[in-house]
Write a structure and sequence with these properties.
Order of helices and strands: EHHHEEEEEEHEHEHHHHEHEEHHEHEH
Largest sheet: 6 strands, mixed
Number of helices: 14
Distance between the termini: 37 Å
Strand order of the largest sheet: 1-2-3-4-8-9
């Protein structure tokens, strides 16, 4: 058996309400007799994290989805906290979600340690991004299970920080991710439930037998052919697995997370959104603006028709072409070379300015340093942090 116990979300929630969940999982562990007992931290996850996911599944109308607790893979250190198994609500094909559950509350990027993070009340070395851990587990599943060969769309991964507010884990939210490494917090619980409803439905008994074979099909499947995109070392690259064009919803969620993280950050940030065409950029701005509006933020798209006046809104989108056309030969900001007074007003006009950059050569404007340089130089003059989000690398 490669997992500790298989329960539906309804069953797990019922055990939790009766205060029997931890004892039931301890009994299952004893029956397996694989040597070694779960740590105190793992048992805290049984008590607090698993019920949180089960509750979200119930609230999303997915109480019949299977939860495979502590799903293990040969050659992988440590189990996945839970593998959710069902069928896709539209295609009725098998669908799986690997979920890593963290009780972290406050996280910051570790100084002098690129890609590592310091977690409050968790001593020791800086930690990897949990979404990277989830993606690595998913890649191993893709390599080793025949059920997924040629059907990578059947698998997704997520990390759920169910105790964390977005403002306390902003450094995690801006980290690149793919369909194998989504991240959700306490504040984005609604987005998590939408994500689960998009990917999972409970399988009727007939479909469970046909597709999932009581998930043993994932246990016994052996890989007989290689997956596209696996390198010479047998690994899928961190950014491999799906495309911006074929899975725009994932890119939209990522942009939404980055914007919300910037809004919640202690200090103001300017975002440069790069690696998209003009049409993709406008579409991302429109969809993200709509989602932000539903979440209670005010957002606008600046057309370049007039200089924005501050304060204007929470999030202000503008595309490079409009900005380049408005700037032309720029009037410097406070006389500083390579800056723009228009860009300065744009940065001041919102909590989160988002500049959508175009592919090289597509933007108009004839200033010497280019639009990218004007934004960077002006942000520096205003002492505002600038972050570049390269979507074609994350989703290309």
């Amino acid at each position: 058996m490669v997992f500790l116990m298989r329960l539906s979300a309804d069953e797990l929630h019922a055990l939790h309400l009766r205060h029997e969940l931890v004892a039931t999982l301890e009994s299952a562990e004893e029956r397996l007799d694989e040597g070694g007992q779960s740590s105190a931290g793992e048992k805290r996850a049984w008590k607090y994290s698993l019920p949180a996911v089960a509750r979200d599944l119930l609230d999303a109308g997915l109480g019949g989805v299977d939860m495979l607790i502590e799903y293990r893979l040969p050659g992988v250190q440590g189990p996945a906290d839970v593998l959710l198994a069902g069928v896709h609500p539209r295609t009725r094909e098998p669908s799986y979600v690997v979920a890593e559950l963290k009780q972290w509350k406050r996280v910051q990027a570790a100084p002098n340690s690129d890609g590592r993070f310091s977690v409050e009340n968790l001593p020791g070395k800086p930690k990897k991004h949990p979404a990277e851990q989830t993606a690595a587990f998913c890649r191993k599943l893709l390599e080793s299970h025949a059920e997924l060969v040629g059907h990578e769309e059947r698998l997704a991964g997520l990390t759920y920080l169910h105790n964390a507010a977005e403002s306390d884990v902003a450094d995690l939210l801006i980290y690149p991710r793919t369909r194998l490494s989504h991240i959700f917090t306490r504040d984005s619980r609604g987005a998590l439930m939408r994500f689960l409803r998009e990917r999972l439905a409970a399988a009727p008994e007939s479909e469970t037998a046909e597709h999932l074979e009581k998930p043993e099909r994932l246990e016994k499947g052996e890989l007989s052919v290689r997956l596209d995109g696996i390198d010479a070392a047998g690994q899928l690259s961190w950014h491999d697995g799906f495309r911006l064009v074929s899975d725009p919803a994932a890119a939209q969620r990522y942009v939404m997370d980055v914007v919300r993280a910037a809004y919640a950050a202690e200090h103001k940030r300017v975002l440069l959104l790069a690696g998209v065409s003009a049409a993709q950029g406008r579409h991302l701005a429109t969809v993200t603006g709509d989602l932000l509006g539903r979440a209670g933020y005010t957002s606008r798209m600046w057309s370049g028709s007039r200089v924005p006046q501050s304060p204007l809104c929470d999030v202000l989108f503008c595309d490079e072409a409009s900005l380049a056309g408005a700037v032309g030969q720029p009037l410097p900001f406070e006389g500083k070379e390579g800056t723009s007074a228009v860009v300065a007003e744009l940065i001041r006009a919102s909590r989160v300015p988002v500049v959508i950059m175009l592919p090289e050569g597509d933007a108009s404007g004839g200033n010497a340093v280019g639009t990218d340089g004007l934004v960077r130089n002006t942000a520096r003059a205003l002492q505002v942090r600038l972050e570049r989000i390269q979507l074609d690398e994350a989703f290309g």
